[in-house]
Amino acid sequence: MSSLSTIPRHMTDPRLTAWRATVAGRAASYVVGVVLLGGAYYAAAKIGLRLAYLDGAVTALWPPVGVGMAALVLFGPRLWPGVVLGDLLVADLSSPLGTVIGQTAGNTLEVLAGALLLRHLAGAGVRMDRVRDVFALIAAAAVGALISACFGTASLRFGDIIPAGQVGEVWRTWWFSDFSGALVVTPAILTWARSWPWRTTRPRLLEGAVLLIALVLLAELPSQRDVPYAVFPALIWAALRFGPPGASAAVLIATSLTVWNTAHNAGPFVRESITDSLLSTQLFMVTAALTSLVLAALTAEREGAGEALRQDILRREKAEQQLVASERATRRLADEQMALRRIATLVAAEALPSAVFEQVTTEVGQLLSVPSARVVRYEDQAHVTIVGGWTAERDFQGLPVGARVPLDSDTVVARVLRTGEPERLESYEGVEGELAARLRGMGFRASVAAPVHVGGRIWGVLVVSARDPADLPVGVEERLCAFAELVAQAMANADAYEKLASSRSRIVEAGDAERRRLERNLHDGAQQRLVTLAVYLRLIESRLAADNGTARDLLAEARQQLSDALGELRELARGIHPAVLTERGLRAAVEGLASRSLVPIEVSDMPDDRLPGRVEAAAYYIVAESVTNVAKYAAASAVSVAVRAGGDFIVVDVADDGVGGADPAVGTGLRGIADRVEALHGRLRITSPAGHGTRITAEIPLEQTVG
User: Fold this and answer.
1) In this predicted structure, which of 73-77, 238-242, 582-586, 703-707 has the lowest mean pLDDT?
2) N or C: which end of the chain has fewer CB within 10 A?
3) What transmembrane ranges does the database entry give (predicted)?
């Protein structure tokens, strides 16, 4: 683990971060970490020697142990060479080499073993805020101190620095010194490092300052010799109020002052012998550290449990609220779906639009709990008509059904017409116009409207109004749109039904007219000629005997009359259904039509292959009717005809350069073309600007018409 890995990202330059990701960067970072740890270990050792007894020979507290363990826990065990470096810097190199090596090895193993054991027992993220963390620290410190005491005492003995009779005393002092250093210094570093960044309040800072003053005063009171544990109230205060960081800092300060005073023959722990002074001081440090750390951990656990309980209560309350909201939403959705289903059933039954409007406004008003719901139809750009409505009070006097009002205000109805989207108006105050005045007179302050689109245009709006804008929460627009679509479907059905009825009527009328035309043509044309032929034949019969010359003339006239009658019959048959269309196909039929036309016709892009019979017949009659209209009304000098087959449909295009202005609503010709195209599920476009000719384009699908 890199020695710089715990530096907050916002404190590092991106270029530095990128460089550290390289091999050279990682190596340099590691070296820096080792050097920094070595320096910190050396500084802590120097401080510990300043607290030593007998001119630096014996110390009750060895801080480097705590510094090393905390560093390896925070930054990883791989920085252990820093402990070796720091220990060698502080070592007495005048001692035998074996003694120096043994002490350095013991101190390094102590720190490494203690850090590994603490990470194993409490986790790498140990914060000393659990009782198990404190006991893990005790175990790790005890094991580490045991290793160091054994190595150190053995090194001194084998180097003949201490006599055999002092081995036990030296071992005990060494173990207590290292154990105390780990127990006092390690928690202070860990808790404050884990608490970064440090944040506090002014009252908290003031309380901390008072606590520090009280702690120092209690530790330095002259009367403390009689009350050696007078600092414990301050330690308890720190543990209860400031948690593990406060407790560890208070222990570090109190024990440092105690060791300093004892080393200078002051304080409550000075005894007749240096050994007794050391032991009493070390017991005080261990007791103070354990008491404060355990109490702080218990406090943190209690606060954590309380916070967890509060969070659990909040989660439960939130879950209950969400459950209630979900149940409400489910009920609302179910009610909405049932309302939509009732309206859809009405629409599917092809009910009258007025019945659909009444049902929609009733369902919307009751579902949204609003006092008013209406369906409004746009008459033009300046007027609207109320075609359906519902109010909770059943009072339509303000805007009754059938009312026609000017669209001269900035109401939601006018806004929807401009934007084509759902609109909301929070207040009618200051809005001018008759519609706004009527709504204000009814006590309404806010409205929401959704457009009703029919046939690609805005037919009207579904609008709800309320006396308080809060009664129209966010989301009403989307809910209105669902009902507006049903209104649109009802109008589309009504329009389709009306068109179908009109189409059927026109087909019947066209059939009757065609039969009358056939009857008239047969009566006035072929029938009369045949009658005349019969008369001529009777004359021939009566005069054959008397005058052969006259008979010959009459026979010639009869032959001519018969030829004319046959021609008219052929022309009549060709008008009903030309034989060439059946025998030779669409190209030949259209070319024959062009050859007989009084207006020049240019034929292009005709399909070479035969098409389905119904398609050929439809295409031919579209061309024939269009050419007939051109000859009768267009005053055109030329006509172009094209029939293009592409994919699953054919396109019939007839264009002229006549006067234009053709209106499908006038006459039967264009309506007949439209009926024929719609009957084959096709599409018809008529473009006829006045003075610029007419173009008729029909798209007829092939798949649906085969067979």
Assistant:
1) 703-707
2) C
3) 27-45, 57-80, 100-122, 134-154, 174-193, 205-222, 234-260, 281-300
